């Protein structure tokens, strides 16, 4: 019994020493691990803003496209519109003006490709509210500061005439955001709101600006709490998502049909069509040969056709039998023809080997003799 207690105590002592050494020499170090964003975060680049506002008591409602009917159905006191996703009509502009004067807060985000002169209704709407287009200076020297909010880089505005208006400039001195009062409400115009995206909200200056525009003022009277967004939503990244985004669905369908037609066009000649086709009987060999001769005669090529046979016969006679003279070659060719046909006719063989103008029937006869001699060689 005492022996077991001794071994047990010794084991505990050894483990204690090991634990003390490990505790003295090593320490626990935190390790950062990257986790891919969720599917919802990849689809909605404003997800952090939506959750932040909802947690602060400002529920968010989003539509991908807006028009006059969507405005009339909105009960929220703050509306954020991405200009390219809104159907600008005269009635919609008049409704927005009246809605702002009643106390509504409008934030209008101009897209990077928007031009003041292209959309007459929207341009008139902004002019009536007091917004003017800014001018790019000729001697602009770009300067970047990390403490600056992430403004849309393509839209600049003219400084407002109202000194009480809010005008935010970048570090190059260009006006990037303007807020003007109108009746009981206000209107804010800026470029693409990159400072509202999930990645940009990690910077304090972007979070402060987003909160000031969307939740920094008390809820207007007569409206329900919340913010109504008319903005685009990014598709899921990947092959399918990129094909279907930005209105590419019709182009995808047309491309698929074109690919199907081209595929069938390439496959059908290889495997044949489904409908049966009766095989037509061909012409006899002598008729085909005669037709070929007529074609060659029509284009003056009978002699060149015969000369090929005659040249090959002379080449083989010179190679196999060592003949060099024309008479020797003619005598040898006549012997070959006599052995094949059973009759000796040197004149006929000479006519077949010699150049000259031949008729259709004579041409067929001469070519038959030359082919027989060539086969025997």
Can you describe what's shown?
The chain has a seven-stranded mixed beta sheet. With 377 residues, the chain is of the alpha/beta class. The protein contains 14 helices and seven strands. The chain starts with a helix and ends with a helix. It is elongated, with a radius of gyration of 47 Å. Strand 4 and strand 5 form a beta hairpin.
Quick recap:
The chain has 377 residues and is α/β, with parallel strands linked by helices. It has helices spanning 2-25, 39-43, 47-55, 68-73, 90-101, 120-129, 204-214, 239-244, 249-271, 285-298, 302-320, 326-341, 346-353, 360-376, and strands at 60-63, 76-82, 105-109, 166-169, 175-182, 185-190, 224-230.
Distance between the termini: 114 Å
**Helical amount among residues, as a percent range?**
40-55%
Q: What Rg, in angstroms, do the CA atoms define?
A: 47 Å
Number of helices: 14
Share of residues in strands = 5-15%
The computed structural class is: alpha/beta
Spatial strand sequence of the major β-sheet: 1-7-2-3-6-5-4
Average residue pLDDT: 78
Would you count the extended β strands for me? 7
Q: What is the number of independent domains? A: 2
Order of helices and strands: HHHEHEHEHEEEHEHHHHHHH
Strand count, sense and barrel status of the largest sheet are:
7 strands, mixed
Bulk shape: elongated
Low-confidence stretches: none
Helix-strand layout with pairing:
Layout: H1 2-25, H2 39-43, H3 47-55, E1 60-63, H4 68-73, E2 76-82, H5 90-101, E3 105-109, H6 120-129, E4 166-169, E5 175-182, E6 185-190, H7 204-214, E7 224-230, H8 239-244, H9 249-271, H10 285-298, H11 302-320, H12 326-341, H13 346-353, H14 360-376
Parallel strand pairs: 1-7, 2-3, 2-7, 3-6
Antiparallel strand pairs: 4-5, 5-6
